[in-house]
Amino acid sequence: MTVASDARLSSLDRMLDDSQVGETFATDMFAVVDALDSSATLRRAVTDPGTPEGARRGLVHGLFDGKVDRAVADFVAEAATLRWAGGRTFAAALERQAVHAVLIVADRRSDLEDTEDQLFRFARFVESNPDLRNVLADRSIDRSKRQELVGELLRGRATDATIMLAKRAVAARERTFANTIEGYVTLAAAQKNRVVATVRVAKPLTSDQRDRLHAALTKQIGRDVAIQEVIDPDILGGVRVELGDEVFEGTVVDRLEAARRLFG
Fold first, then answer.
1. Residues 6 or more apart from 85 whose CB is under 8 A from it?
2. pTM value?
3. In 3D, which of 78, 10, 5, 1 has the Cα closest to residue 32?
4. Average pLDDT per run of 10 along the chain, which is 264 residues long?
5. Taking the CB of residue 125, how many other CB atoms lie within 10 A of it?
6. Would you list the DSSP string of 107-170?
């Protein structure tokens, strides 16, 4: 991601913070994103840098006023005045803000941490079931049917925010369902200024082990950490921690491999 794209996303984050994010904000924003995704002509029209900002703003209002919440139309109109690399980049940025809106409402309901954990667990469940993973990725099956399947699997077992985002992830904007969910989990953690640590262990951590690991990781990186635990039989013993692109090894396998390299 470039400095310019980071700046645009940060600008949208601030705009969302200043917006009135109601219960329907995310749903309406997703509807705008779907409209943009379905029309290259529309994407070009609202992001053409050769068109005056006022005209782009007016075009958005002409298209969406009365069809979506006024706060959403205002947000999209202002976002359209920024300089974008292309229409698809613009649509992806709006989708990110729609996800943010879902998480804001979840936080308001005190459901944010449950949503973060449920999304992570559901992504792991899908990845461990090849048939389900293949069905969700099969674009020959109508997206609404795949979303219905996700809803049926989560109904009564997850927060409203989890269900909404898991169904949205079927579109797989980040290449795969799992990658898209991973992005949602990262955004959920960032909502509370935390980072996600995927912790792979041979057996579940005790409360004491989890607390000590949380304290050590928080001290290591200087920010609060959201621990997502994965039981991995290949670990054998110890722990493997993944923090973004960084991996911290402390497993039996790792130590045996180090000894093999030393004496091999």
1. 5
2. 0.85
3. 78
4. 78 90 96 97 96 96 96 96 94 96 96 96 95 96 97 97 98 92 94 90 88 87 90 82 82 62 61
5. 13
6. HHTT-HHHHHHHHHHHHHHHHT-HHHHHHHH-TTS-HHHHHHHHHHHHTTTS-HHHHHHHHHGG
